[in-house]
Amino acid sequence: MEKLNIGHGSGGRLTSEIIFQILQPFRKENVSPYLEDCAIVDGNIAITIDGYTISPRSFPGGNIGELAICGSVNDLAMRGAKPNFIAMGLIAEEGLAKDELLSYMESAAKVCSELSIQLVTGDTKVLPKGQVDGLYITTCAIGTPPSNRDPLGMHLITPGDVLIVTTEIGQHEATIAALRYGLSVPSLQSDCAPLWPLVEQIIEMDGIKCMRDCTRGGLGTVLCEWAESTSLGIEIEESKIPISNEVSSLCDILGFDPLYLACEGCAIIAVAPETSEKVLSVLKAHKLGEKAQIIGKVTEEHKGYVGMNTKAGGRRLIDMPVGEMLPRIC
Amino acid sequence: MEKLNIGHGSGGRLTSEIIFQILQPFRKENVSPYLEDCAIVDGNIAITIDGYTISPRSFPGGNIGELAICGSVNDLAMRGAKPNFIAMGLIAEEGLAKDELLSYMESAAKVCSELSIQLVTGDTKVLPKGQVDGLYITTCAIGTPPSNRDPLGMHLITPGDVLIVTTEIGQHEATIAALRYGLSVPSLQSDCAPLWPLVEQIIEMDGIKCMRDCTRGGLGTVLCEWAESTSLGIEIEESKIPISNEVSSLCDILGFDPLYLACEGCAIIAVAPETSEKVLSVLKAHKLGEKAQIIGKVTEEHKGYVGMNTKAGGRRLIDMPVGEMLPRIC
């Protein structure tokens, strides 16, 4: 009898498999080859849902309440959709301090207020001690897709497209890893942020094809998904990938590959080559995109695969991770 | 330091309090006095969210997968909204049998298929063993509110309105209680069902004011909420309340009050007196409403309170329950 394991929630290969199986009974026809984190229904409603089970619940740069809004808002933003409404389901453990819960709600409300998002409905379940580890939050975000263009998505990606990363990678998971392993890394903090204010700057520009926030599984996993789903090749330059000294050092110590570390305020964007420099400069003018970089391109070679030219001058195949380095990072 | 307790998730008094506190930071103005389980936004989108943590996960009459669709669909139906889309977030425990998970997805998909509901987006998290008790599901249902009338709600209730219960009360929680206490009650099963097919029969009729499915806290809690929120009185007749022999006996044995037992396919409806008999006959013609009964009315007397004329010929005040009889029933 096959059992679920942690890897099924990693965002990598096993997650793709279990999601495919879960979807089977729901579809009479085949499953769409283009699965995005956010659906566009009835032409004008963008919907996404995500569960947040992060441990510890507070961390440098954020907490579970803030994350539960940012994460879902970012899934909308990645399709170019403006976030309007949030529905929030709480599953809390008996004995959780009420003030702690309310402090997360304060953080969540702050993000909502900054982005003029309305919390419209919710649900609160309290479970007996030991059946939840403190607090799990599920948020469903509803928004408006761009009216004057097709929603962004993998189907728009073509050979020659340029790949832009909006900020330093791996900050979120590195922060959580440092906490879990008891390592003190001053000035390391999660990049947890709502990306819509950044996306809003570029969404009307020509040539924006596809965006994805690099959450579970990190930048590496997103690129693998894009290469596989589009049957195109992807080529990146290790030397161009923005990464902080803190994250680099931590990866050296723990043996992690920063390419697979989760981010919570970092996106990868596929842009037509003729507008890529302009998009980059608009991104760099915004606080959330100051460290944006062009890191590579989409090619017709090695279809379905991601290749990286390493700093050492070699070539490396980037594969989708199978297991999970660290559970409960989001 | 105040801590959450099981009662905060009961659907009763403590739940109202914690929800009020959770909502505070999200509202610049006051919290609406009319809180419904389903929000209507932008005039034409109905949204609801609910978490499902039931134990055991399978029970006579249903399972957590079926319940996760029915429960959220019912919250939409209670506002008169047709369910169109479901977003589903899974939080699963490492070690859960994959076949078990997939069997719940089959059940969920069956309800979706019967009602032409599309699963549009989802999320799967797998947590280390011991941090989830098997599986928790959160569903967000999105639908279309009635176009030719105001969405139903407590604000429409006026004195004189007649109260109709659509089927026998307490079947769901009684079923779960029997399982938990190891009592064998042949033919007792949960009423778990999607109510939209029933609501669809009456939603165009004049005089329908407000509907609510009697989930956590049961019929008694809904009536208390209505009386308090509208500042009107409610008067019910114990002898008119439909209840099966199985539920009656189980309540006698366990000392439960059936008024507070959760249902998952039973609604209470407030209807203008002049159309109440017609509505009742339409309900009775449908499989899900065969046992519908008029159980009482809304009054101008004893404002804010629910009174019940008992079978024994006495009068009883129905108060909102403070704690919870049984956790994890939905």
What does this structure look like?
The structure is a homodimer of 330-residue chains. By secondary structure, chain A is α+β, with helices and mostly antiparallel strands. Chain A has 2 domains: 35-144, 60s Ribosomal Protein L30, Chain: A; 154-318, Phosphoribosyl-aminoimidazole Synthetase, Chain A, domain 2. Helices cover 28% and strands 25% of the residues of chain A. In chain A, strands 9-11-8-12-10-13-14 form a 7-stranded mixed sheet. Chain A has a 5-stranded mixed sheet with strand order 1-2-7-5-6, with helices on one face. In chain A, helix 3 links the parallel strand 5 and strand 6 (118-127). The longest helix of chain A has 17 residues, at 98-114. Chain A is globular and about 55 Å long. The model of chain A has no long low-confidence stretch (mean pLDDT 93). The interface between A and B is large, with 77 and 77 residues.
Question: What key attributes describe this structure?
Answer:
alpha+beta; homodimer; 8 helices; 60s Ribosomal Protein L30, Chain: A; 330 residues; 7-stranded mixed beta sheet; 5-stranded mixed beta sheet; 28% helix
